[in-house]
Amino acid sequence: MASTAASRVLAGLENVRGWQEGFYQDLHAHPELSHQEHRTAGNVAQRMRDAGCEVHEGVGGTGVVAVLRNGDGPAVLMRADMDALPVREQTGLPYASAVTATTDGAEVPVMHACGHDVHVTCLLGAMELLAGATSEWTGTAVAVFQPAEEVADGARGMVDDGLAKIVGAVDVALCQHVLAFPAGQVGTRSGPTLSAADSMRITVHGRGAHGSMPQASVDPVVLAAMIVVRLQTVISRETRPGDPAVLTVGSLQAGTKSNVIPDAATIQLNIRTYSEQTRTAILDAINRIVTAECDASRSPAPPEFERFDQFPVTDNDPGVTDRVATAFTDHFGDCAVELPLQTASEDFSDIPKALGVPYTYWGIGGVDPATYERAAKAGRVADDIPVNHSAQFAPVIQPTLDTGTSALVVAALAWLGRSPGG
Ligand SMILES: [Zn+2]
Ligand SMILES: [Zn+2]
């Protein structure tokens, strides 16, 4: 490999790897739910302080910001999310989580089922590498360790708590996520990459009565059923073929007993879209269909709509993505691939949007390459490879950590590594 700023900074990777693997296993064994990332944040802050960063704790609750100033030059923001999920781990790993936590008054198992422990470990490593090789770059590296990605409000929480003031002027924002493709690979994508997500709880009202006397009721069970069926036409009949969108009714609840007609029904649904226009059109269609079905059923009160867990679309800036993709190809060769469009969602883009800077978000593989190849050959990737949020999601430690750490360094140096004026 030609001697580049990236290769010279990454010469320190072996030292970083020495603590990273143990740190990762410890973090994996001690996952924390959204807004409860106290232990994680404490460990992150300590490591960043030891690396010589200016550290801000408690940003937006449990968020941590580490700033590394190294003279004049561009400022690059990198973000890692820290929270875990209420999932009972079934990986069988020696460092599997046995942790539980209390949320909404209930005790639940907790697992790093989305790989945020990988993101934290890689960003710590990248910052330490940059801190150890300040002669190779110039500018400012900012690491944002964000709480509560899984509940979609951690990024906004940090923004609302003065993130812009802490980080100052930033030129670009970068983010990565470990995904279920071969470890060692990095995948970039220009334009819309992750969907916007909207969750909604809809309550429709009826009039309860004895199950034997339907004439005295307005039956919300039938009403809700009609709504669920009619909602299937929104994507199939109202959105343009080729414009990807998803509308899933994940929950439908009404009644308690076979011979009691209840007085209300509740529908919970989830929407995924890639443009504001499609998103608005679908939300309007849901409103129209629910309201009209309630009218058709003689519903005695208007339906109630409650929105929650709203994620923005992640729309990668073409110029930024191109610069990162070129740097990845130079460094990773054939392992730099194109990331397919993802139906998952993220709140990362709330940060660059609030700061007014362009961004890109890429994927790193976390699946053992041989395992992946076997599954691909047998046509069994969807059956055999656990994806994020699965109780079996278990990124291989290497080359995942090396790749994620290197990807951040390589991408950041696409800005920071430029000689001043060059
Ligand atoms: Zn997740
Ligand atoms: Zn995630």
Question: Could you characterize what this model shows?
Answer:
It is a single chain. The longest helix is centred in the last third of the chain and has 21 residues, at 276-296. The protein has two domains: 5-192 and 313-416, Zn peptidases (Aminopeptidase, 3-Layer(aba) Sandwich); 196-311, Alpha-Beta Plaits, CATH 3.30.70. The protein has 422 residues and is of the alpha+beta class. The two termini are 22 Å apart. The protein is 37% helix and 26% strand. The strands form five sheets. Strands 1-2-6-3-7-18-8-17 form an eight-stranded mixed sheet, with helices on both faces. The chain has a four-stranded antiparallel sheet with strand order 12-14-10-15, with helices on one face. The protein has a two-stranded antiparallel sheet with strand order 4-5. The protein binds zinc ion (2 copies). Residues 114, 150, 388-389 line the site of one zinc ion.
CATH topology of the largest domain: Aminopeptidase
* Number of domains as seen in the coordinates: 2
Name the beta content range. 25-35%
Broad CATH class of the largest domain = Alpha Beta
Helix content class = 25-40%
Mean pLDDT: 96
Q: DSSP helix count?
A: 13
Task: Provide keyphrases for this structure.
single chain; Aminopeptidase; Alpha-Beta Plaits; 2 domains; eight-stranded mixed sheet; four-stranded antiparallel sheet; 18 strands; binds zinc ion
Topology at a glance:
Layout: H1 5-9, H2 13-29, H3 38-50, E1 54-59, E2 63-70, E3 75-81, E4 100-103, E5 106-109, H4 116-131, E6 139-146, H5 154-160, H6 163-167, E7 172-182, E8 186-188, E9 191-194, E10 196-205, E11 209-210, H7 220-238, E12 246-254, E13 260-261, E14 264-273, H8 276-296, E15 304-311, E16 314-316, H9 318-332, E17 336-338, H10 350-355, E18 359-367, H11 369-377, H12 381-384, H13 397-416
Parallel strand pairs: 3-6, 3-7, 7-18, 8-17
Antiparallel strand pairs: 1-2, 2-6, 4-5, 8-18, 9-16, 10-14, 10-15, 11-13, 12-14
Helix pairs in contact: 2-4, 2-13, 4-13, 7-8, 9-13
The protein binds zinc ion (ZN) (2 copies).
One zinc ion binds at residues 114, 116, 149, 177, 388.
